[in-house]
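Researcher: Go.
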Amino acid sequence: MSKWSSKQLISLLFHSSTCFTNDNTLFYMFTGMNAAVRATVRVGIYTGAKVYFVFFIYEHGGLVDGGDHIRLATWESVSMMLQLGGTVIGSARCKDFHTKEGRTKAACNLVKLGITNLCVIGGDGSLTGANEFRTEWSELLQILLKAGAAHTKEARRSSHLNIVGMVGSIDNDFCGTDMTIGTDSALHRIIEVVDAITTTAQSHQRAFILEVMGRHCGYLALVSALASGADWVFIPEMPPDDGWEDHLCRRLANQRSLGYRLNVIIVAEGAMDRSGKPITCEMIKNLVTKKLGFDTRATILGHVQRGGTPSAFDRILGSRMGVEAVMALLEATPETPACVVSLSGNQAVRLPLMECVQVTKDVTKAMTEGRFEEAVKLRGNSSLYSYCISVININIALMNVGAPCAGMNAAVRSAVRIGILQGHHMLAIHDGFEGLAHGNIEPISWASVGNWTGQGGSNLGTKRSLPASMMEEISLNIAKFNIHALVIIGGFEAFVGGLELVTGREKYEELCIPIVVIPATVSNNVPGSDFSVGADTALNTITSTCDRIKQSAAGTKRRVFIIETMGGYCGYLATMAGLAAGADAAYIYEEPFGIHDLEINVEHLVEKMKTTVKRGLILRNENCNSNYTTDFIFNLYTEEGKGVFDCRKNVLGHMQQGGTPSPFDRNFGTKMGAKAVLWLTDKLKECYRHGRIFANTPDSACVLGMRKRALVFQPLADLKSNTDFEHRIPKTQWWLKLRPILKILAKYKISLDISEKTALESVIKKRGTV
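Model: Structure:
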């Protein structure tokens, strides 16, 4: 057990919409909350703490009413909730909390239960309210003592209140975090609607205007526009210039003249022009209808964006944030300022709560005062609001290598269009390195990649062949087609192929061109990147399939499902799907196991299934062990579970590679494609000498990857030492640190490494004083 097990700290899980400032924002439910609830409860119990729920029923309940509305949470009380949207403990506005009397009642209820830690899931209003509650805590204790509502011993035991916040908002409008819990699920709902509308719009040759949520933040509108290939987007932070009506109509008319059968315009609900006048769906519809005569429809998505099943990303994000919140509470002292746990790149960070709230309010204030450029800067790294464009005339070729995956086409489309905007000539190489060797190369235009973002697979065609045996033909075609730079989008074969091209530079001068590899594979096994394009779509497929498989046994006797996932020797999919779907075990190659481990797992599951738990889920990576096959594990659990549960097995197979890309993969592929072309542009300027391009330094052939908190370019040669070429995986993988969390959430009594502590960072210092 953890070293904290003897420290009887008491945590409280609290959803609140209340604030007592001028912010009258009503806090709504959103998907992903239950994952945070589950992780906070189970990790809190694991550390030896008591964890309480605060239930809200309409305007009643919560901290103020106390009584049965504050209940002790158990391990079983958060079972089977990962797949549920909304929040199982409710969320409501409590008017009484606005008053001193109401807050005093709330303090009394906490003191009586000995609660000294508060975990708040909400937006800036909820978090501000909680921080004010903490600030006046000593004063409230004195009021209780004078009134005789609390004893001196109780007040001493509850002398201080620690606060940790988790940000929940589908708008992604909270400064300090790249993604808030619920945003990715909302994007799933939006993209599902846009994809469905696209089919009818193409059939009837219509223009569609869609309004999405985002009163003060255009994140949902902007990312859904990028992910769907929309023609135009309106967001509050970047109002269009005067005369936008004529510009929009010219753009739509030009698209139709090029043969496009549909137009999609996405509008954030808070969109406005530079004078502050709202820009609405109906206004745009009337403009397009009257000026162009297009058959136009307007759709307001509304609260459908808040509901539905949480995405895999939100489940994992909620789980990671819940764990980090408990760690922050356990490490807190009376002097520790209230903090909020956030996501920066792929890293969990802690930030001062009120600094984040202040910057968030500064964004709204800047927009109100017409300082839009400042508002965009304050939004931070997650905003995606602009890409710089410079002009240099070069030929950039693109290819897909390895197995196809969702998101490849989004990366190609982005690279092509950013390249064209910079004045480059873009070339498409069909069928990977074989196509490059055989001269299967042609120009690719702006219009030809028009609808690629939402399409799965590889429209360029892709093969697993490596270039080593075709080096001479490849070098000849690079010279023949005058290729100045190469973008390779693919999996482990793309990485190895890039290395082979770098090695071939010693013999073939034509290969001395800048090369960038964009990781794209469901296996997420490319060295140099925490994430690969395509992995999120596969993860969502596995997670939703696990939900359906577990639901298939509803109402029957206790049942355990054994599910095999893809990934080669990489256990990323099995591990992360285990976190997202609530698996009891996930067997992977990177964590060797034997018959003794299997015996422990079976016995553990047998004991769990003797309680109120009725479903078990076991995931197995396809190559985790050549002897302990899926059939072997199925037979073992079937035999040992007799009389307690029965078993079923499923091999998911290539369904994990198919389907339309998730919003994350569309967005990630778009960013990666754009970033790659911009980097190549700068690199070509460095390598241009005496009328020719010559690039043979290690940093002229790189992998573009997400590493912790940023997209970085790493030389292919530098990554060789960190690569297990036999098993096609990196030697170090970040997600292995999440394995203990998977086991803790499955109720295993294991030790948790807490040697790496997350320091409290400053938001204002990073962004400059506001």
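Model: Confidence is low (pLDDT under 50) at residues 1-30, 382-392.
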